[in-house]
Amino acid sequence: MGFPLSKTYLTSSLNLRFQLRSRANSRMGFLPCTTTVLGNMFLIIVYGYLMYLAATYLSYGSELLLEILGPGIVGGLFLPMLGALPDAMLILVSGLSGTAETAQSQVSVGMGLLAGSTVMLLTVIWGSCIIVGRCDLHDSVAIDGTNTKGFNLKESGVSTDIWTCYAARIMAISVIPFLIVQLPQALKFDSGRQLAVLIALIISLLMLISYCVYQVFQPWIQRRRIAFAKHKHVISGILRHLKKHALGRLLTDDGEPDTEIIRKLFETIDENHDGGLSPSELRALIIGIRFEEIDLDQDDAVSKVIADFDTSRDNLVQEDEFVEGIMKWINEAKQTGGAYLESNAGTIKFIDHFHQQTKREHALLGSEEQSDEVVENVENPRWISIKAVLMLLLGTLIAAAFADPLVDAVDNFSEATSIPSFFISFIALPLATNSSEAVSAIIFASRKKQRTASLTFSELYGAVTMNNVLCLSVFLALIYVRGLTWDFSSEVLVILIVCVVMGAFASFRTTFPLWTCSVAYILYPFSLGLVYVLDYVFGWS
């Protein structure tokens, strides 16, 4: 066995360092470059801060643009893409330049960023939002603005609306391209790797388009669902009011609506006794009911009642129309609230059950103000539009200019310290690209309201979804076009575990007690340790 520092070894080592320095000089141009540990650490900090500025400008510009144009195409299509732009840019440059061998070496930086960003959003940031946004829990629902329980693990926490659950489910579904691209490697079918990359790329792009279309139409869908929930709330409120004035006897002994009782109630509401209920009489009925649980537009409620009852279209509810309408509502409440045959107690039970169910449904859907985010009467919209465009351009230019030098600095630091570049990009780069998002999410969650909590967690799930479709699409396109090898089994496993666990956790519940943050915090070191064990103990990659 020869002496370890042979001439051949020294020559090859010097050549490697010369190539690294030459590549750094040629790719960074006027930017500083170094091969020392401290020098590259300094460059990672500087370039990371610049990427943080880029993400901040893009986020601020997006918010300004949303103020002017509102949700829809801007909120659903452009904003999610702009939010993922810094990550996508870093992934792209990690394997775009240099030879195929160099790209294959550096592409692990892109995968580290993709995995690290997803894991950080769903663990550290998610758990922190639970802690700062916690409120007192009453009947498993967080009470806005209250925090008397302190850090009680079971009696304090966060509540979200049903739309946040939908966002979590979409996030869990978005991991499908990862499964597809990983299949040949799992089945030891090496010849099918490139085909799997192409199929996964196509599916990822289709999912990206579908997600953007859903985001564009989601505000409209949400408004329709909330309007329907309010309509049901009007029905349940009026039925409870009538039940109270009928002493609970809205049903006959055989469980059918009692038409005689309903006719007597009609006569009570018909103040002028002209045989028809006018809009003003219906409004007086609705005002008397006092819908305290929801912000109800009384004129809209009157219109809904007339639309349901007035079959003759004369803008009056006749006695027969009233009886038919109430019978229809009672049957609907029986189907939803559970059919009871008892004439007295049964009426109270199923109508109260129907009322509680509609209240819960309305609470889960959130307020209408959340679904309609358009800010009206914006002062000086032209200046705000110019400012938004300038912010977006500046953020894009900074991301484009410094993404490549940052990847080089990470690669050089990895070479100098013998630390795998994946771990540097997994831990350090998400701090740069997700910092502004993390700070805004935590500040927003600290307002301690269901509405802000719902928006905060929806944004986190949306950011991970964009990682799984947009950033992965960029990564897969890079792998396919440059003919690189997909060899990221452990990284994909970590992404799958975190997305599926947190997606399943958030898909079927709307209240998260304080103890749930521990699940998120445990997942972060678990993910990092799992990648290390699989890659460097079992040699998966």
From TrEMBL:
Per the record's keyword annotation, is Metal-binding included, yes or no? yes
The keyword Membrane is annotated on this UniProt entry: yes
One annotated GO molecular function is: calcium ion binding
Compartment(s) where it occurs, according to its Swiss-Prot or TrEMBL record: Cell membrane
Q: Which UniProt keywords apply?
A: Antiport, Calcium, Calcium transport, Cell membrane, Ion transport, Membrane, Metal-binding, Repeat, Sodium, Sodium transport, Stress response, Transmembrane, Transmembrane helix, Transport
List the SMART domains: EFh (SM00054)
* Pfam families listed in its UniProt record: EF-hand_7 (PF13499), Na_Ca_ex (PF01699)
Task: Cite the InterPro entries for this sequence.
Answer: CaH_exchang, EF-hand-dom_pair, EF_Hand_1_Ca_BS, EF_hand_dom, NaCa_Exmemb, NCX_ion-bd_dom_sf
Q: Where are the transmembrane segments?
A: 29-52, 64-85, 105-132, 195-217, 384-403, 423-445, 457-480, 492-512, 519-538
The cellular component terms of Gene Ontology attached to this UniProt record, alphabetical and capped at eight, are: plasma membrane; vacuolar membrane
What topology does the record note for this protein and the membrane?
Multi-pass membrane protein
GO:BP terms for this protein?
A: intracellular calcium ion homeostasis; sodium ion transport
Chain ranges of the EF-hand domain: 257-292
Q: Which family does it belong to?
A: Belongs to the Ca(2+):cation antiporter (CaCA) (TC 2.A.19) family.
What this protein is called in its record is EF-hand domain-containing protein
Q: Which organism is it from?
A: Gossypium barbadense (Sea Island cotton)
